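Methods: holo model generation. Sequences were used as deposited, without trimming of termini or removal of tags, and paired with ligand SMILES retrieved from the corresponding compound records. Each pair was processed once, and we did not select among multiple samples. The sequence and zinc ion SMILES for this entry were:
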Amino acid sequence: MMKTIFIAFSLLLSITVYSQKKPEPNLEKKAAEIHKRTLTIDSHTDTPLRFLNADFDIGKDNDKRSSKVDLPKMKAGGLDAAFFAVFLGQRERNDDANKIAIAKAHEIFAAVKKEVARYPDLAEVAYTPNDAIKLKKQGKRAIYIGIENGYAIGNDISLVKKYFEMGARYMTLCHSKNNDICDSANDTIEHNGLSKFGEDVVKEMNRVGMMIDVSHISDKSFFDVIKLSKTPVIASHSCSRTICNNPRNMTDEMLMKLKENGGVIQMCILSDYVKKIDQDTLRIQAQLALREKYKGFKNLSDEMYKKVIAEWYGIDEVYPPKLADVEDVVDHIDYIVKLIGIDHIGIGTDFDGGGGVNGCNNASEMENITLELVKRGYSEEDIQKIWSGNLLRVYRKVMEYAD
Ligand SMILES: [Zn+2]
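and the model returned the structure below.
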């Protein structure tokens, strides 16, 4: 008996001595410090869609249900910079429809600049990789512009340069439908990858120094782009298809090619792309009914769009969605890092375009990603690469190549 007590006591003592030698590190404190020192960039948000709502004000802490990104939320979440997408839903592809799309794109560019200009002491529109570094030192947020959907150029190649001059630093070649540039991951085969016009677009983007965004494009389109592009590419908001099987996510083969290309995949945190979770049947039915009511959400006017958004979020109130969480997001990061290394992964939330998971559901919660990375043993150097280093490396390469 005494012997047992003695062994137990020695064991307890040895544990105590061990834990005194190696105190439990305060991971939260460590993560907070790293997060503060790190330049953080979110490569994809659809926040300009919220500008249609007259109540939206980038300088105020807007209702989280209607908007996930604004300057106070970015500050609270230690998010230094974000790409705001000039997003165009794919509509018809003829001269009249193209004209409307081009006009709409111009309108969104102007709206982003106008909204940011309301708060010159808090934020600025950024145009170069160094702008984010400079603005962080000044305590200001950097807002970059990206175009989501090459439909914004219709079939006018000269618009690539024009949009670059207006501030666009990447263009997602298509969205969830095929366009004149290439096939989408969510549509049928039309061009079998990049079209002839799409090849010209890739060359022109290389020439002017605009990053090519391969998110949303079909696998074949992706391989065509990689073969043709003289510069590394980005996937501004995508995940691993091995971890979550969705055509929008990237296969291992694509990720290996991306590594060879020197590019970067920016981890999307839209729950459906992160993890398959069965949702409440009533929620699904309500969403289907809404889709039917608004004829598949096709050709919505701005007024109608506002109504749809309000009703869509209304469904969330009654039947809250079951979401993936930050651990699931970092599972993708772990997987991608193991497959292609630490130099090819970043973060692109897709906030205000459906993005958001439990624990990181708006820009004020960004630090939780850093915390999870710290918990899993990522070094400060790794975390800096993930939050901005890798994306800025590609951005610089693309600008160096331009004439
Ligand atoms: Zn998207």
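Residues 148, 216, 237, 350, 353 surround zinc ion (CB under 6 Å).
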